[in-house]
Design brief:
about 290 residues; alpha/beta; TIM Barrel; 2 domains; 8-stranded parallel barrel; 15 helices; 8 strands; elongated
Length: about 290
């Protein structure tokens, strides 16, 4: 496994919690930021534009993706053009389809041709990657976000899909492939191996980077210590009194069972040679 410093893939922090974002701003290996309306709603953001502009003031030197949220294509275009004016490092997120599943190729083509740096998002199939590659302007920077984590959620291995997506984008050198919806730290190394240019990772996973290369035996011991510490802190108890009583009780010797003599027993005795047991046992009849 590569060390973090050796990774080719760029790490972007994904979220809308301002405190978490500011924490990640201090990390030089965090190369950019992404968010979306769902993350913003979960974080309690009430004013979309006010939050976006505050974030741009906090992060003036790295790319940040903000997403349109209209469903009408004309309104989406107006939102995209507006968002693009918010800062030089803004990437405008456009979903690959509208809510009806209609491919937004014409909108993507117009915006990309107008010089808007797009982040085409919510992609889950290679067909979508190929169609997006066809409509992106060759000389305009863009990000193609494939939701590898959601692909994995369906039981499908996303790694070969991401590798093929990278191949499909080869004719668009200004377009970068992004591994989206990360689920665990290992995804960073998988994205790197698949040739992805960017991976978006929430802060709670990025904080685990300090574990890379950790001794697993030591990690095992720390895990056991954690279980013990938490059980003690919770004052958990298990009543073992009955088990103690059973183990300390004086055992009663088992009674020997007495079996009655059967005809089969007498028959076997008659087969024993007289030389061993005497004539009286070999036959039950009295001697003449």
């Amino acid at each position: 496994m590569r060390r973090v410093e050796e990774l080719r893939v760029k790490l972007f922090s994904d979220g809308a919690d301002l405190a978490g974002i500011l924490e990640m701003v201090a990390k030089p290996w965090v190369r950019g930021f992404t968010t979306n309306p769902t993350l913003m709603r979960k974080a309690g953001i009430a004013d979309y534009e006010a939050f976006a502009r505050a974030l741009l003031r906090a992060v003036p030197d790295r790319p940040i993706s903000f997403e349109v949220f209209a469903d009408d294509e004309r309104e989406m275009e107006l939102q995209a053009l507006t968002i693009a004016t918010w800062g030089a490092h803004v990437n405008v997120k456009i979903p690959v389809t509208n809510r009806a599943g209609v491919f937004l190729g014409s909108l993507i083509r117009r915006l990309s041709s107008a010089g808007v740096t797009l982040n085409v998002t919510a992609i889950l199939t290679l067909e979508q990657v190929e169609r997006v590659a066809e409509v992106l302007a060759p000389r305009t920077p863009a990000i193609v976000s494939v939701f590898a984590g959601r692909i994995a959620d369906t039981g499908v291995d996303p790694i070969p899909i991401m590798a093929e997506a990278k191949r499909l984008l080869c004719r668009r050198p200004c377009a970068e492939l992004l591994w989206a919806s990360s689920r665990e730290l290992l995804n960073i190394f998988q994205a790197d191996a698949a040739g992805c240019d960017i991976i978006t990772v929430p802060p709670e996973i990025l904080r685990k980077l300090e574990l890379v290369g950790k001794d697993l035996a030591a990690y095992s011991r720390e895990t056991v210590e954690m279980f013990h510490r938490d059980a003690q802190a919770a004052a958990y108890r298990i009543d073992t009194g009955e088990q103690i009583a059973v183990r300390t009780a004086v055992p009663t010797p088992p009674r020997k069972s007495v079996r009655s003599v059967t005809k089969d027993d007498l028959h076997r005795l008659r087969q024993i040679p007289r030389a061993v047991v005497g004539d009286g046992v070999a036959s039950s009849r009295p001697r003449a």
